[in-house]
Design brief:
heterodimer, A: alpha+beta, two-stranded antiparallel ribbon, 2 helices, elongated, B: five-stranded antiparallel sheet
């Protein structure tokens, strides 16, 4: 009886502590993995954009562009519009094979952001998975096939200000217990080539 | 014979099961193991926080140096001593806590000194430094670059 009185609370304590420790380790692991994923995406974009040609920046026209007569149709690629957040970007960068040569350019790179099925751009969780306006960031090189850069992207937009470009990227992950891990980055890049 | 058998049985019963001493030793071992696991978890969480702080500081320093490249070059010298904020992981302001006695309340600060002067051209050595009160101890991070007139 005495043994049971001592052992049962002890066993419960061990189970509770082990569960909490395992939970904390999982949270740390998931959030670190999420941060690492974002870090990889940001580093890639920063590297490509820093060597970019500012004059090559273009974006897909939206309704406002058609109204302002910057484009004839929605979705047409037009020169980047300053100081307005956009979700797609096409540009070339200095090739970098010959140092100091900013004239030789890479193929065009197109970054585009598409919402997942069941989500609409309204700042709400439409499909009930806990993530808000999540979608996929894709890359096309020279207009080729779409390569998936990241899934679970809750925000991807940028603003051009002269030769500076300010990005906003937020990615989210959901674990098996339904917890959401969000992390965002707002890097600023000064484009080195006009 | 019956009495002897009873004596032996009584003796065997006393030997079976765990004694309180064994139980206490087991308890002590369990407490030590749980304590070590908890300590390891807390330490891991602190290290993660410290890593995140350094990451936020490094990103802010890099971003602010990039911002500085996009301002009018003639104004760079006047940026010496100017502070900047370190945003949090979701981009919210005040991601890190300034150290005690920080007059402007901003974690980051620029230092701009002349590195070289040739004719009318000046090359500046610009350092972005972040100092903050960390979860483990006070933290500091610096990035230095050279800035000259741009084409």
């Amino acid at each position: 009886m005495i043994v049971s009185l001592v052992c049962v609370p002890l066993l419960l304590g061990v189970i509770s502590t082990t569960t909490k420790v395992a939970d904390t380790v999982t949270v740390n692991d998931q959030s670190s993995e999420n941060e690492q994923s974002l870090g990889v995406i940001v580093e890639r974009l920063v590297k490509e954009l820093r060597a970019g040609h500012r004059a090559s920046f273009s974006t897909k026209a939206i309704a406002d562009d058609v109204t302002a007569m910057r484009a004839s149709a929605i979705g047409e690629w037009i020169p980047a519009v300053e100081a307005t957040p956009r979700k797609n970007l096409r540009f070339t960068s200095a090739e970098g094979k010959i140092s100091m040569n900013a004239v030789l350019a890479t193929d065009t790179r197109e970054y585009d952001y598409f919402l997942d099925a069941g989500e609409s751009d309204n700042g709400m969780d439409d499909d009930g998975d806990g993530m808000i306006d999540e979608g996929t960031l894709i890359l096309r090189r020279a207009g080729g096939p779409a390569l998936t850069v990241a899934r679970g992207v809750e925000a991807f937009e940028y603003e051009v200000d002269g030769r500076a470009i300010r990005l906003l990227i937020r990615i989210a992950r959901r674990d098996e217990k339904g917890r959401i891990y969000r992390v965002s980055a707002t890097p600023t890049i000064f484009v080195r080539n006009s | 014979m019956t009495a002897k058998s009873r004596q032996v049985r009584t003796f065997d019963d006393r030997e079976s099961g765990a004694s309180l001493t064994e139980l206490m030793i087991g308890l002590l071992v369990c407490v030590l193991v749980i304590g070590a696991a908890l300590s390891m978890t807390v330490h891991q969480s602190r290290l993660r926080k410290a890593d995140r702080e350094v990451d936020l500081a490094s990103r802010a320093c890099r971003d602010n140096l990039e911002e500085l490249r996009s301002v009018d070059f003639a104004t760079i010298a006047s940026m010496d001593g100017v502070g900047f904020d370190v945003p949090g992981p979701d981009g919210q302001p005040g991601g890190l806590t300034p150290i005690a006695g920080d007059t402007d309340g901003l974690v980051g600060e620029f230092s701009v000194v002349v590195d070289q002067t040739t004719g009318s051209a000046t090359l500046y050595r610009v350092t972005a430094t972040a100092r903050w009160t960390g979860s483990v101890s006070n933290g500091s991070f610096s990035l230095t670059t050279l800035m000259g007139p741009r084409l």
